[in-house]
Amino acid sequence: MKARELRERNKEELLELERQFSIDLADSRFKKGAGEIKDTTTLRKLRRDLARVKTALREQDLHMENKTAKNMESNTEQVGGGE
Fold first, then answer.
1. Helix (H) or strand (E) holding 29
2. What φ, ψ does residue 9 adopt, rounded to 5°?
3. CA distance linking residue 36 with residue 27, whole number of Å
4. What average pLDDT does this structure show over 39-45?
5. Quick check: 80 pLDDT over 70?
6. Total of domains in the chain
7. CA nearest to 24, candidates 5, 39, 37, 43
8. Considering 20, 35, 77, 78, which has the largest number of Cβ atoms within 10 A of its Cβ?
9. Which residue range forms the structural domain that includes residue 49?
10. Which CATH number is 43's domain given?
11. Burial 47-58 (b: 16+ CB within 10 A, else e)
């Protein structure tokens, strides 16, 4: 999954993907331990996809924090500017 595709999704979709990738990764680890997985690159791909989803979620959180901080600054300036 591409990072650009993830940035276009909303938070609920990203949280669902994070949950699904975590479950898939755990299942794959058990299968690898049992010798059921021949292609070990599956684990690497899942780990990287999960990291991309977590990064996209964090970027959204930071974006919202910055918006909130800017709104707080502008509100403070408006209140303080009238004195």
1. helix 11-33
2. -85, 155
3. 11
4. 91
5. no
6. 1
7. 43
8. 20
9. 3-81
10. 1.10.287
11. eebbebbbebbe
